[in-house]
Write a structure and sequence with these properties.
Blueprint: E1 4-14, H1 21-32, E2 38-46, E3 70-74, H2 83-89, E4 94-101, H3 105-113, E5 121-125, E6 133-142, H4 151-154, E7 162-165, H5 172-178, E8 179-184, E9 187-192
Parallel strand pairs: 1-5, 1-6, 2-4, 2-5, 6-7
Antiparallel strand pairs: 3-4, 8-9
Helix pairs in contact: 1-5
InterPro entries: P-loop_NTPase
Protein name: Molybdopterin-guanine dinucleotide biosynthesis adapter protein
Length: about 190
């Protein structure tokens, strides 16, 4: 299948859980919300309908209760501690959670894109989406203190425009300042300064 070009998207991936994806997304939203309408997207990729939790154990039910190939839900509560609520509280105009079977990521993202105005900046958390799209920029957060790399990250880490290693939490403002976003003639252009 062909890659979908989404030049208005900053895609954030990570090599493991609790690595700072949402923290980075929140700071990017705060920086850019006065310049562009910002839409945030969090993607949970489900391997198959088997109902097994990808993280092991009983899980939270996300993987077991999906009936369709994908499901897009808009977050409406900015007072919760859920990642999607934090993105909304940071100032995103809209926040969506796309739960998607891995084999249907193309259909899921195409459906999402029909909800997004052309002039909106998209801040997205996902590794797997990079197998289906070419974003404006792709940032990978890598924890070198933990050798275990999620399979989804291993599949796309070589496509990252920048890899941020280790001391991420202490340098978030520095990372955010390195990212430049411009809109010219309805086309987004992104650049990461070194």
């Amino acid at each position: 299948m062909e890659f979908l070009n989404i030049n208005q998207m900053i895609l954030i991936g990570s090599t493991g859980r609790n690595s700072g994806k949402t923290t980075l997304a929140v700071e990017l939203i705060k920086k850019w919300k006065s310049h562009f309408p910002v839409i945030a997207l969090k993607i949970t990729t489900i391997q198959d309908r088997s109902g097994k939790c990808q993280r092991g154990g009983e899980g939270c039910g996300v993987c077991t209760n999906i009936k369709e190939d994908f499901k897009l839900v808009e977050e409406g509560n900015k007072d919760s501690s859920k990642d999607t609520s934090l993105l909304l509280a940071a100032g995103a105009e809209k926040v969506y959670w796309l739960r998607c079977l891995k084999d249907h990521i193309h259909e899921g993202i195409e459906f999402f894109m029909r909800q997004v105005p052309d002039n909106a900046l998209i801040i997205c958390e996902s590794n797997t989406l990079r197998t289906a799209v070419v974003p404006g920029t792709f940032i990978m957060l890598k924890n070198t203190e933990n050798d275990a790399i999620k399979k989804s990250a291993g599949e796309v880490i070589n496509n990252a425009d920048i890899i941020i290693e280790n001391d991420f939490q202490n340098s978030i403002k520095n990372i955010v300042e390195k990212i430049e976003v411009k809109e010219e003639k309805s086309q987004f252009q992104m650049k990461i300064h070194s």
